[in-house]
Design a protein that fits this description.
- This protein is mostly helical and 575 residues long.
- Helices cover 63% and strands 2% of the residues.
- A hairpin with a 2-residue loop joins strand 3 and strand 4.
- Helix 10 crosses helix 12 and helix 13 runs antiparallel to helix 21.
- The radius of gyration is 23 Å and the shape is globular.
């Protein structure tokens, strides 16, 4: 147990150190400055612009930026859908897998386009190698680059002094792929392959077991897909077991390395924000608020799982940590990782929008399972997805300075720009959209017969399975309580709408806010200006994030995991 805690601490330190170096690099990339990769990448970048007719120096208003972003997403979604539907007629399908069903193909195409990577299928039994590489892995890069581009646009607007534009989506997304996602993924893929993650284009081999039976082993070109899956906060694993599968996540080192990849860019973007606005402490305040919630959540999840399941204790199971066993609640967990590592992974994968899992969240204790649910309901901002976490947290920052402005009786300011009624309305709209959609869709699903057919468990846990699924899809996370049967026409269709709204309807007021801030002149700080680069502001920001989440979702949590917790403690559940 002590070794696991030390590994968690070392991983967090590695993330913070890596973010400190990655942040300035991101700033130079997206401001067009020369970086160490420029001699190799810059000619490729210029060639892509010439080939596609993109004018690198052409700036876009927030409306044009939005239209360009949506156009790319729609086209890529349609291409993926077609690939899934006709994969039986395409190459790199040695298993001879048939076409994906229309509703499942739609759900999957929307899922990977929106960076959700929700999977209502078993990857090794549904998707060909070509579908995995061209239809899915391509989205892992594009969707992550889209999130980074949107964050860069908002940061550019906040940092600008007189601009009426917020950049060029095509340029921002291209640089995100070429300078950031692709090179890091290549290095990370080599590291994972060296540790035993599978990377092959060969067919599924048949092996003989010790009992004399024949077993088919699913393999594929997945080590490098695993790298971008975690780095880009995508989460969709090629195997049904996701990062619990030894071919994706072979050992304790790779488990912590994947957590490192999940957290690196979200915290790096916070440092980039500080560098861009000319005050690194601004970025540290944002990143510090993210880290406080994440570390606290990881501690609660790990502690709840290490404490064990009361029902198993009453049944006589030994859940005490010893030299021969990790102890705690080991249901749904790999012995390679144990409760502490699994709780840490769960908080990290849902604190970001990654959604990959190294254990079954459905088998967690009620409090342990509530942690990843709440992390998503907070808005995926602690630290959130690549790009999405930063722009989501900046929405909370606008609300926080508005509250601070009310306290001191003057117009709120953020980095010298007055936050007026238009900005507050836009920020509030982005933050209220999630609760409205998640709770609304959950209410519908527990009332209609098609929705009630989904959960495999009765009572509070079944309600949590529905709530978790619709929260995960709106938050573009993709993890699941596996007890929900999601591969139905109802949940495929509703889930597709949930994911699309959570990703793209959300960004309309976001980019409108960016356009509003871009044209505002900055004013010098006065005696009444509330400093936003201090621990006090970081604490206020944490409070706003937690209060908004608690007020909007607490009644639903009381009907789900909290009720189940008290029932389990009272001996009313066998769990």
């Amino acid at each position: 147990m002590i070794v696991d805690i030390i590994a968690v601490a070392v991983t967090f330190l590695a993330v913070f150190a890596g973010a400190w170096f990655v942040g300035p690099y991101l700033h130079r990339v997206f401001t067009g400055q020369r970086v160490f990769l420029s001699p190799v990448v810059r000619p490729i970048e210029r060639g892509l612009y010439r080939l596609s007719g993109i004018r690198e120096d052409h700036e876009q208003t927030w409306v044009v930026y939005l239209v360009a972003m949506l156009a790319v997403q729609v086209v890529s979604l349609l291409i993926s859908y077609v690939i899934f539907r006709i994969q039986d007629h395409l190459p790199l399908n040695p298993q001879g897998l048939g076409p994906v069903a229309p509703d499942l193909a739609f759900n999957t195409a929307v899922s990977f386009t929106t960076n959700t990577n929700w999977q209502n299928y078993a990857g090794e039994q549904t998707m060909s190698y070509l579908s995995q590489m061209l239809g899915l892995a391509t989205h892992n890069f594009l969707s992550a680059a889209t999130g980074i581009a949107l964050a860069v646009a908002l940061v550019r607007a906040i940092a600008s002094r007189t601009l009426q534009t917020i950049g060029n989506f095509y340029v921002d997304a291209t640089r995100a792929v070429l300078y950031v996602l692709l090179p890091i993924s290549i290095v990370a893929g080599l590291i994972l392959a060296s540790q035993g993650a599978i990377q092959t284009l060969g067919g599924y081999p048949a092996v003989h077991t010790l009992e004399g039976a024949t077993q088919t082993i699913a393999v594929g070109p997945f080590a490098f897909q695993e790298a971008i899956k975690d780095l880009g906060n995508n989460g969709g694993g090629p195997f049904n077991a996701n990062s619990a599968h030894p071919f994706e996540n072979p050992n304790g080192f790779t488990n912590n390395f994947e957590i490192f990849l999940e957290l690196l860019l979200p915290f790096g973007l916070a440092v980039m924000f500080g560098r861009w606005v000319g005050n690194v402490r601004q970025g540290v305040a944002i990143g510090g608020a993210m880290a406080i919630v994440l570390i606290g959540a990881a501690g609660i999840a790990a502690g709840a799982e290490q404490a064990g399941n009361p029902a198993l204790t009453r049944a006589g199971a030994d859940q005490v940590s010893s030299a021969t066993q990790a102890g705690g609640n080991m249901e749904g967990k790999s012995v390679r990782f144990g409760p502490i590592q699994s709780g840490f992974f769960a908080a990290s994968t849902t604190g970001t929008s990654t959604g990959s899992v190294d254990s079954s969240h459905d088998s967690f204790t009620p409090i342990g399972g509530m942690v990843p649910l709440v992390m998503m309901q907070l808005g995926e901002v602690t630290p959130g997805g690549v790009g999405a976490g930063l722009y989501g947290m900046l929405m909370f920052a606008v609300i926080a300075v508005f509250i601070a402005g009310l306290m001191v009786g003057r117009t709120p300011e953020y980095l010298g720009k007055k936050i007026e009624s238009r900005e507050v309305r836009l920020a509030s709209l982005t933050l209220l959209l999630g609760p409205a959609v998640i709770l609304g869709f959950t209410a519908i699903s527990v009332l209609v017969p098609a929705g009630l057919k989904g959960p495999l468990n009765p009572g509070a846990h079944g309600f949590t399975e529905i709530l978790y699924a619709l929260t995960s899809q709106f938050a573009n996370n993709g993890s699941a309580f596996a007890g929900l049967t999601g591969n139905t026409v109802y949940y495929n269709t509703l889930g597709g709408a949930d994911m699309w709204i959570g990703r793209f309807l959300f960004v309309i007021p976001l980019l409108a806010l960016a356009g509003s801030l871009a044209g505002k002149r900055t004013a010098p700080a006065g005696r009444g200006t509330f400093a936003t680069d201090t621990p006090l502001f970081a604490g206020l920001l944490v409070g706003v994030v937690l209060i908004v989440g608690a007020l909007t979702f607490f009644p639903a949590l009381a009907l789900g995991p909290l009720l189940e917790h008290f029932q389990l403690a009272a001996g009313q559940l066998a769990h």
